[in-house]
Amino acid sequence: MKSIAISGSPRENVGKRDAKELRYQGLVPAVLYGGPTQTHFAVSAADLRAVVYTPVVHFIDLEVAGVKSQAIIKDIQFHPLTEQIIHIDFLLLDEKKPIAIEIPVKLTGTSPGVKVGGKLVQKLRKLRIKALPKDHLDAIEVSIEALEVGKSVKVAEINLPNLTITNAQEDTIVSVTTSRALRQAEQEAASGKK
């Protein structure tokens, strides 16, 4: 899985007034959980753009006061009106502990059902997976090569070594439905045969 390096500066004061001052300076208050102690620090809002505003999931190489650690984003709080990031929580990664995160679904191939006029409907754009950090993927590839009209790919059909998908097994990831044009063409063909 890809990683992005972000550096932060430790926070001496932890409170609303301090957090407001940090935001005014273009910084975002942050906390790193999962270690022996919580680490309170501030990161540049500009540095977070590459990690937050993307469908790609990244591990984050954090450096705070010379201490390096690998983490993932656990929670982000946005301002309700401006959509500005007002707080971010990171979770320290442990190579021996599985973590649960959402990974994007990437469709591959061309569906024969779409070629004949069917409509491709992707119901799940991300899947929740649980695995050790070393086993995580950038994306889960789902082939649509065999999808005819009326067929679908369900979560139960995805087999990935060392990963557990925690979505419901009967959930549909992608399907090919009959489009309005195809339905109309079938109706016209049926009425023409009578």
Automatic annotation (TrEMBL):
Any one GO BP annotation for this protein: translation
Gene Ontology CC terms, in alphabetical order: cytosolic large ribosomal subunit
Leader peptide range in chain numbering: none
Keyword Ribonucleoprotein: yes
Entry keyword Ion transport: no
Gene3D superfamilies documented for this protein: Ribosomal protein L25, beta domain, Ribosomal Protein L25, Chain P
PANTHER family, sorted: RIBOSOMAL PROTEIN L25/GLN-TRNA SYNTHETASE, ANTI-CODON-BINDING DOMAIN-CONTAINING PROTEIN (PTHR33284), RIBOSOMAL PROTEIN L25_GLN-TRNA SYNTHETASE, ANTI-CODON-BINDING DOMAIN-CONTAINING PROTEIN (PTHR33284:SF1)
Name of protein: Large ribosomal subunit protein bL25
Organism: Mucilaginibacter pineti
Organism placement in taxonomy: Bacteria, Pseudomonadati, Bacteroidota, Sphingobacteriia, Sphingobacteriales
Gene: rplY
